[in-house]
Amino acid sequence: MAPKTSTAETYAAQHRGDADHYATYFAGMDASMQQKVALTTAHFPTRGRVADMGSGSGRGTYDLACLYGGLELVGVDINPVSVDMAAAAWQRPNLRFVAGDIADPVFPPESLDGVLDSSVLHHVTSFNDFSLARLETCLDNQVRALRTGGVIIIRDFLVPDGPEQVWLDLPTTNGAAEGPVQGLSTAALFERFARDFCCSVNRDGPVPYTRLDSPHPGHVRYRLALRAANEFILRKDYRTDWDVELLEEYSYYSQAQFEAAFRRRGLRILSSMPIRNPWIIANRYEGQFHLSGLDGQPLPYPPTNYLIVGEKVPPGAGVALREEHSEPLAAPRFLSLSAWRHGETGRVWELVERPGRTVDLLPWFRQDGQVFVLAKKGFPRPIVNACADHPNLGGAALSGYITEPLAAITHAGEASDKAIARILHERAGLPAGSIRALGEPAHYFTSPGGVSERVSAWLVEVAPSSGLPAPDYGPFTSSGSVRELDARQVLRACHVGGMVDARLELNIHRLLRHLGTSPGPWIGAPIQLTEQSGGPKWADDALAPARRAVFSMHEDGTAGYLDLRTGTFSEHDAEGRELASVPREYLVPREASRNTTVALPVVRTREGIRVGLEHRDLPTVQHFTGSATLAVTPAWRLPRTLTHLSQVPAFIAERLREEFSVTVRRTWELGGSYHATPGVTPELVWPFAVEVEADAACDSRLRWIPLEVLVSQLDVVRDAHLLVVAWRLAHALGVLG
Known about the structure:
The protein is 26% helix and 31% strand.
């Protein structure tokens, strides 16, 4: 039997030389490491100890240590060169580095509050003979080291979902057919890759493929497994360390396998999302290959990365909420449906309403120069998992436990200050004496096209707190916990879909503006507008539509557009045992999907940046204000025929052309998707910024307003969707400062 290799020998193939070689290697990775940190920080606690597994250069670990002065950061790396360099380069009182194999029990049980595995677990499989057993042991050890309530975050690669076999068309004219790797064409590089790459699914032989003529000039077509195509696409631009990269199998688990591995270990999944890095898509994917199914239909780009966040819960606690059964709601007990007729067009609108008034509270405090908020973490919102048969455009999955403001339903007659004190006590355990100041409320409509709901949102300054035990007041095993979160890190998570509650985001933006605090850098897709000549004029009434009441109650039945349903939602523990079964009433469109897109038109001219708003008559607005017309961002429910997010820009372009006579130049995802009212509907909103032709915009019925003016007057905006996209676009373009 061969002698057992040491840990250092196991990973020796990764070694890239002396300190100068390591410095060059890490210099190329640190920019992406900063984005990785931004993707994950909002989920970590702000106090305690966090281990950064595979810390490499130490820059990402250092960034975390700077973000959270109250957190002890421990960088762990297998290579002593990395550990020594990191310890010399990055020094803080709350930071240290240790050498160790991240798959081994580096830390005692119940000693960590967070574990970060950023682009490192594929090393565990690749340099242990592609062993998934070694990976399972690694996860066991890391979860064992977590305290209850601790969080583990994995950011790595993903075995993509899709057809087993695909066509991959690669160019032959962008390099040589033979010679050094650096000068090869993409097609020649693929054939070199197929010859030399070994992985768990082809350990001893070349990657199987069939070469064919391509319908694309200057390309050659290959038929191969999607998993193999993805492995090549991910590494085709890493030519400097090509031989080392070939030793690594990037993808080892599918999304379903990641999620199952977390649940088996008693982890509640806070986020599970394929990531398509916009820079990689724009610079390494678009125009550089063609990927299609064997039927010839183009396939969406595979994810560039994957993020999964899990929270360790007590034994026997719920880890997943899912809808077991759904049926039309014959006799509503909680929701009510009404119909309203537009007096001029005759169109009938349907509205769904729940009893009482919706109140959001955001307790906050400052400490050591940071702004912290108290939010409900792990609150059960099973409706976000309703309608699993509707298209999942981005591929993200939720356990049903989300992070949100302290939200409650109040009833007429209760004074606001008394209601706020009561909610803080009942839902957060905060005594009345902890309230230091109460700001003025903001009012906005969460989903004004179909939900008759206006939120009153309050910023409440409280005494500093690091988290409180939250009373249980619901039918599930837990009502979550009240946790201290860094305000700006929450915004970063929202930019990339790591958090999904729009109202938490909106309240934090309001808070930071109130305090005169910068929201920090934008980390979503970079938006680069082209300056155009001409352009639309500033409409003085853009945010102040003429007041008019045009709706009346319609007694002849509803229009059949909205569907009230009751779903039976079950809660399950890590062993799959059912802990609770609870009915919930909710709203969905009858024919359209649960997905909505909002698209903020924008142009840049010599006069500056202007955005286009729509004036829309909505019965919800008239019900609350007496006037029906509201300034909104263009928005549409998406048809169920759209099955992937990559199809949405074309849909938006068609709608803007037909309804507003504008021509789209370019479209950007404007941060992650969000839920605006998850207690009523599973509606998931996909926001976009849309650059349009300036000349056509002049003749559009859109009302145009300078972005700076819109941002300065956001206190009068009442459409939650417009608030989200306005804050995000202003953040992305540097208008927030």
